[in-house]
Amino acid sequence: MGKLDGRVVIVTGGARGQGEQEARLFAAEGARVVIGDVLDEQGETLAKELGSDVARYVHLDVSQEADWDAAVSAAKDAFGKIDGLVNNAGILRFNELVSTPLEEFQKIIQVNQVGCFLGIRTVAPEIAAAGGGTIVNTASYTAMTGMAYVGAYAATKHAILGLTRVAALELAAKNIRVNAVCPGAVDTPMTNPAQLDPGADPAAAGEAVAELYKKLVPLGRIGRPEEVAALALFLTGGDSAYITGQPFVIDGGWLAGVSIV
Question: Which CATH fold would you assign to the domain 8-186+223-251?
Answer without folding.
Answer: Rossmann fold (3.40.50)
